[in-house]
Amino acid sequence: MEFAFLILGMAVVTFAARYSMIFIMGRWDVPPIVTRALTYVPMAAFAALIAPELLRFERDVFVLPTDRFMAGVIAILIAAFTRNTMLTIVFGMGSLWLVQAILIR
Amino acid sequence: MSAFVFAGSSQFIAAQLITLATPFPFIVLTTFIVNLRHALYGASVAKYLSKLSSGWRALLAAQLTDESYATAIVHYRDDTRGDASTKHWYFLGSNLAMYIGWQIDTAVGYWLGNAFGDLSALGFDFVLPIVFIAILIPQLKSRSTLLAAIVAGGVAIFAIGLPNKLGLLVAIALGIIAGMGAERWNSRS
Questions:
Q1: Closest to B158 (Cα-Cα) out of A44, A65, A60, A70
Q2: Which of residues B113 and B88 earns the better pLDDT score?
Q3: Which residues of B fall within a CB distance of 8 Å from A39?
Q4: Taking the domains of chain A in order of start, what are their residue ranges?
C-alpha cells in the first residue's frame, strides 16, 4: 500500500517538472533574452548527456571507457560528415562491438 | 512503476533507493530533482505548443522524455518539414513510441534478467549516447551552438559526479551562457 503512494508521488512530481514550464510560458509574455537562451537548450542538454558516457572525472580520477570513447568519436565523425541518423547509429554500435572484440582478443 | 512514472533515470535511482530502505518522501524529492531538466525541455518547446489546448499540452508534457524531446524539437525547428499546425501529432507519436517501447522493454528486461542474469557487458545501453550524437551533431550549424555544446559537454565530464543529476543542470546552464556569449561577441565584431 505504501508502495502505491511512492509510485503516485513519483508520478506527480515527474509530471510537475515536465508540465510546469509549458504551463507558465503559455500564460506570460516571454522576454526575448529567455527565448534566445532556450534555443541553446537542446545542444547543451545532448552534449551534457553524451560527454560523460565517453569520458568522465569522478572521485579525483578520469574514467575513460576506451571502447566507448573510440566508438563515440567514430560516431561523431560519421554524424558530422554524413548527417545521417541511421548510418551513425549502425556504424556507432558496430564500431563499439568491433573495438570490444579487438580489445578482448 | 514503468507504467505510471515513465522516467528512466529516476526509476533506476528509485530502485536503488528502495533497496537501501530510503524513506519514501526522500525518494519522491529525488525524483523531482532528477527530472528538473525536463522543465527546461518544457520551456524550450513551450512556444511551439502555445496554440494547443491545455489538454493537448498536458498530454504532451506527461510523457516528455530526453528521447522524444530530441526528435520533437528537431522536427519543430525544421521549417522544411511539414506544416507547423500538425507537428504536435509528430510529438505525440514520438512520445507514444517511447512509452510503448519502454513498457515492452521493461517486461523483456525483467524476463531476460531473470533468465540470463547480467547482460550489461554487451553494451546495448550505448545506443542512447549514439542516438543523441546522431541527433545533436547535425544541429550544430553555427559557432555559438558549437561552443554551447562543447562547454556543456566539457562541464558535464567534470560535474557528472554531483548527486541527482544536478551536474547535468549545471552543464546545460553553462552551455547556454557560453552560446549566448558567443552570439553577442559575434554580433559585435
A1: A60
A2: B88
A3: 44
A4: 1-34, 40-105
